[in-house]
Design a protein that fits this description.
- The chain has 17 helices and 2 strands.
- By secondary structure, the chain is mainly α.
- A two-stranded parallel ribbon has the order 1-2.
- The longest helix is centred in the C-terminal third of the chain and has 16 residues.
- It is globular, with a radius of gyration of 21 Å.
C-alpha cells in the first residue's frame, strides 16, 4: 500500500503543476535511520570489545525507549549468532502463515540471508547491504516508476555520490549515538529545525495504516476472506495458524498488519488469476 500511496502523492503533485520533487531516499540506509540498525551497531561494539561504549549506548537507548536490558542483549546477540542460526530464525519468521509443506519445499531458495562482507563488521555490512541490495534498490525502482507515471522528475539529493562516499567514511558514532539514529544529520540541523522535530524518536517510514483499516472499516471484509473456502484450501497458507494469530492479536491489541496485508493480497491476486489449485505447483 505504501507504493500506491507514493503513486497518489506523485499524482497529486502533478495535478498541482509540480514537475520536480525532492525525495530523501538513501538517508536512512546510509545514516542508520531504522531501528534494526541499532542491533548491528551494538553487535559491532561487542565484536570489537568496546563494552564501555556499548554499556553507555544501551543506557541511552533504554532512557529513550524503556527497553529491558535482556531485550537489548538478545537483539545484539541475534546479529552475532552463527549464520546457520540466523538463517533458521529468518526462515521461521518468513514462513509465518505459510503451509509448512510449501515452506519446506520452496522456502529455502528465498529465505537466505545476504552474505557477510569481508572484514565482518556487522554494522558496516548492514549499511552497505541496505544501500546496495536489501532496501534502497527496490525503493528507487518504485520511486522512478511512480514519479514517471505522472511525468515528474524525482531527485534524490542524499544519493549524490560524493555525499555517499563521505558518509561511508565517517566513524560509526556519527551515524548512531546516544540512542539516536542519523546522529550527524541531527547535529547539522541544530538551530534550523525545531527541537521537537530534530530529536524525534518515533521513527517510521512512509507507512499506511493497514492495522487501522483491518480492525475498522475493512474488518468484515477481512473476516469473509479468512472464512472463505478458497483461502482455507490454498496450499500456500497455513490458514488455521493465520486465523489463530488474527484472533490472538485482536484480543491483545497487537499488530500484524503488514504480514496480514501480504497474505490478503496474495489471496486476492490468486482469485483474480482464477487460481483454484489446492496443491502447490511442481
Amino acid at each position: 500500500t505504501r507504493i500506491y500511496a507514493q503513486w497518489r502523492v506523485s499524482k497529486l503533485a502533478a495535478g498541482r503543476g509540480a514537475r520536480v520533487l525532492l525525495d530523501g531516499q538513501g538517508a536512512d540506509e546510509m545514516l542508520a535511520g531504522y531501528h534494526p540498525f541499532f542491533n548491528a551497531y551494538w553487535a559491532s561494539l561487542a565484536s570489537r570489545l568496546r563494552f564501555g561504549k556499548l554499556s553507555g549506548e544501551w543506557a541511552a537507548y533504554r532512557s529513550l525507549y524503556g527497553v529491558s536490558p535482556w531485550r537489548l542483549m538478545r537483539r545484539s546477540l541475534s546479529v552475532l549468532a552463527p549464520l546457520f542460526i540466523q538463517q533458521r530464525a529468518a526462515a521461521h519468521k518468513a514462513s509465518l502463515g505459510l503451509n509448512p509443506q510449501f515452506a519446506r519445499q520452496y522456502g529455502g531458495r528465498h529465505f537466505a540471508l545476504p552474505p557477510r562482507l569481508s572484514g565482518g563488521d556487522p554494522f558496516f555490512d548492514q549499511l552497505y547491504l541496505s544501500m546496495t541490495r536489501a532496501s534502497l534498490p527496490g525503493l528507487l525502482r518504485y520511486e522512478d516508476r511512480n514519479s514517471m507515471a505522472h511525468s515528474i522528475e524525482a531527485r534524490v539529493p542524499f544519493l549524490d555520490y560524493r555525499l555517499v562516499e563521505h558518509i561511508f567514511s565517517l566513524p560509526d558514532d556519527q551515524k548512531i549515538g546516544d540512542g539516536y539514529t542519523k546522529k550527524i544529520l541531527r547535529e547539522s540541523m541544530k538551530g534550523i529545525l525545531p527541537e521537537s522535530i530534530r530529536e524525534r524518536t518515533d521513527k517510521m517510514g512512509f507507512v499506511t495504516p493497514e492495522r487501522l483499516w483491518l480492525s475498522g472499516s475493512l474488518k468484515p471484509w477481512l473476516d469473509d476472506i479468512l472464512a472463505s473456502a478458497s483461502f482455507r484450501n490454498r496450499a500456500y497458507f497455513n490458514a488455521p495458524q493465520i486465523v489463530s494469530l488474527v484472533a490472538k492479536r485482536r484480543a491483545q491489541g497487537g499488530d500484524i498488519g503488514f504480514a496480514l496485508w501480504r497474505w490478503l493480497n496474495l489471496e486476492l491476486w490468486l482469485q483474480g488469476m482464477g487460481a483454484s489449485r489446492s496443491v502447490p505447483p511442481t
